[in-house]
Amino acid sequence: MTHQNFSNTLLELEEKRFFVKETGEEIRVNPDYQPIIFITSNGQRKLSDAFLRRCIYCYIEFPKPDKLQEIVTARFGNRRKWTKQIIETSVSRFCDVRQKMEEYKGEFGKKVSTSEFIDWLNALELNSNNAKDLETLLLQEQIPYPNTLFKSRDDCEFAGELGHE
After folding, report:
1. pLDDT tens, 129-148?
2. Rounded to an integer, what distance in angstroms lies between the CA atom of residue 31 and that of residue 45?
3. What are the backbone dihedrals phi and psi of residue 115, each rounded to the nearest 5 degrees, phi first?
4. How many domains does the chain have?
5. Fewest beta carbons within 10 Å, which of 18, 127, 137, 148?
């Protein structure tokens, strides 16, 4: 479905129905309730004015380090190798990379996200036997498993420069 078709399809929800082209199914909303739809955007495409008039805008800031530590603790904290110190080190390393990406790309350039952070932590965990191995990976000069964090050739080249400061 193209971006414009998606916006137009959502406008059909005013009729409290939605047609799924791929399955041929029509979904009808219970007439006693107004549907609420959450849509995320990375701001790379312009949305139509008609669509935006029907939206409530909410900007969600990137999590601060203490919130990232909560996320990592919730995901990995029940596993023996994820000590408080290792969680703090992983968050610190990730935040440093993200900050350097912002300096490199500017405020609106694509930077590593929380999702990529979790992918990176999973790769680190899979490739370590214990807390000591995990700590060794986190403290390497070069970012270990950079392809879990960086998704473009330009970003991978940037990652190569991170260890040569």
Report:
1. 999 999 999 999 888 998 89
2. 32
3. -60, -45
4. 2
5. 127
Give residue-wise pLDDT tens across range 30-48: 888 777 777 777 666 777 7
Instruction: Kindly state the tokens that stand for 102.
Output: 């912002």
Does residue 59 lie within any of the structural domains? Answer: no
Asked if the structure places residue 60 within a domain, the reply is no
pLDDT of residue 98: 92
| Sequence-separated (6 or more) residues with CB below 8 Å from residue 157 | none
Start-end of H helices in the chain: 3-11, 49-52, 65-76, 84-105, 114-126, 131-138, 153-162
My answer on whether 139 and 85 are in the same domain is yes
User: How many angstroms separate the most distant Cα atoms in the chain?
Assistant: 61
**In angstroms, what CA-CA distances link 126 with 1, 11, 64, 78?**
36, 44, 26, 15
